[in-house]
Structure formats: C-alpha cells, structure tokens
Design goal:
This protein has helices spanning 2-12, 14-37, 47-73, 79-111. By secondary structure, the protein is mostly helical. It is elongated.
Length: 112
C-alpha cells in the first residue's frame, strides 16, 4: 500500500516540485553565505610584497642582533655600571625597533 502511495506521488510530479523548491532555497542560502565570506584580493598582501617585507625584516634583525648581544654581555658588569650601559643599549634597541616599524608602515602605505 505504501509503495503505491509513493509511486503515485512520484508519478504526479509533486516529488519533483518539492525537490525543486528545496534546491532553489538551498541555492539562495549558499549564494548568501558565499557573498558573506567572499575574500577580495588585496594588493598589500600579495606574495611579492610579503616576501619583500620578510627580507627587510631579516635585514633589520641582523642589524639589531649585535645590540642585543652587547646587552647580554653587560650583565657581567658591576650593577651600577651595568645599569647605565643596559639603559643606553635599550635606547638604541628601541630606536632601531621604531625605525623597523616606520619602514614597514611606509612600505605598506606606499603599496596602497
């Protein structure tokens, strides 16, 4: 009996209409989700720009490494003398770090 009802429903086309309306609603849902998560191409994050920034960062790390090494060597000095030397080198390190940030920001701004 159930087989006949299912067969009658299939033959009348109601099943096709139901599936079609479900598929149309799913299509609208997926298109909405796609538009919400669509990622736009941003030239600031292209491969070439990222590689250039990584190379620049390596150069800056090479520049700051001697300063950090010198800071570590001052830890063996007497406390009063070491504190003065450490403060001086910290200022130099902070200046180099600020320069790195400025260069990276200008690189981002120029690529826009």
């Amino acid at each position: 009996m159930i087989y006949l009802l299912v067969k009658l429903k299939w033959n009348t086309g109601e099943h096709w209409k139901t599936n079609l309306s479900i598929m149309e609603s799913k299509e609208r849902q997926y298109l909405q989700q796609y538009s919400n998560y669509k990622v736009m191409y941003i030239p600031e994050i292209s491969h070439g720009v990222l590689v250039e920034m990584a190379e620049h960062r390596k150069d800056m790390d090479k520049e700051t490494k001697p300063i950090l090494d010198m800071l570590r060597s001052y830890q063996d000095l007497p406390p009063a003398l070491a504190a003065l030397a450490i403060e001086d080198k910290k200022r130099q390190y902070d200046a180099a770090e600020k320069y790195l940030e400025d260069v990276l920001q200008s690189a981002l701004a120029s690529s826009e």
